[in-house]
Amino acid sequence: MNTNYNQNNMQKKSAIIAGIALLTMTIAAFFAQGFVHSSLVVSGEAVITLKNIQSNRLLFDLEIMGWMIIIITDLVVSWGFYIFLKPFHQAYALLGGWFRLLYTAILSIAVSHLIIASSIVRESLFSKEINEMAIQVMGSITAFEAIWSFGLIIFGLHLITVGIVAMKTNQIPKIISILVVLAGFSYSLIHVMYSFIPQLDNVTRFLEMILMVPMFVGEIGFGIWLLVKGRKLSID
């Protein structure tokens, strides 16, 4: 009886912690990628990108800070999802947790290239070799984007695994489970295409626009459900 109570209590706490971490991560991602990165980085324009970052160094450093917050919250979500889903299917919950930890490790490597870019930008302020510096900065940013895109394939596998676990219980609404699986499939498909079929980039971008809603709604919907309903679950 006491064991069930402790397990219930831990599951409820993990639902709250994971839900809060997911929402925090979403805000950080909107700022770092949706606002800063997309406004400063101009694809194929190394010099313009360098000048944008030089003029907004603090903003670029805040983007890096945003990614660091995402990395930390990803670790929290890995733990929270595992603890919450473990009573439903321990093996799949563990697999999902390891997928997310692997994704977080890949993301950390990607973000290290933004840190390198930031250090190059500081050096560029005292250098007349603007073109060479611009190429180096763009190279680091391109490496960040490529490594992160590859990591999102693993992230998609994580969501698919989480969705499968959710489907194995009647306590999580099937619509939530399906949305999580669909989000995971969308992430993996799109970033397999970005990473391994670059000649179809235009098709991939169009497909990404179509799948953007399920990609966003899947995980965030699950996070909101965890905060509203998941924290009230009881293990039979």
Give the overall pLDDT as a whole number: 91
- Largest sheet, strands/sense/barrel: none
Q: Tell me the overall shape.
A: elongated
Low-confidence stretches: none
Which bin fits the share of residues in helices? over 70%
Tally the helices: what do you get?
7
Q: What class would the helix/strand composition place it in?
A: mainly alpha
Number of domains: 1
Organism: Domibacillus mangrovi
Keywords: Membrane, Transmembrane, Transmembrane helix
Pfam families: DUF4386
InterPro entries: DUF4386
Question: Would you write up a description of this structure?
Answer:
It comes from Domibacillus mangrovi. The chain crosses the membrane at residues 15-36, 64-85, 97-121, 141-166, 178-197, 209-228. Pfam families: DUF4386 (PF14329). This is DUF4386 domain-containing protein. Keywords: Membrane, Transmembrane, Transmembrane helix. With 236 residues, the protein is mostly helical. The chain has one domain (2-229). 86% of the residues lie in helices and 0% in strands. It has helices at 2-40, 46-55, 57-85, 90-124, 130-167, 174-196, 201-228.
List the helices and strands and how they pair.
Elements: H1 2-40, H2 46-55, H3 57-85, H4 90-124, H5 130-167, H6 174-196, H7 201-228
Helix pairs in contact: 1-3, 1-7, 2-5, 3-4, 4-5, 5-6, 6-7
Kindly list the characteristics that best describe this protein.
single chain; 236 residues; mainly alpha; 7 helices
How do you describe this structure in short?
By secondary structure, the protein is mainly α. It has seven helices and no strands.
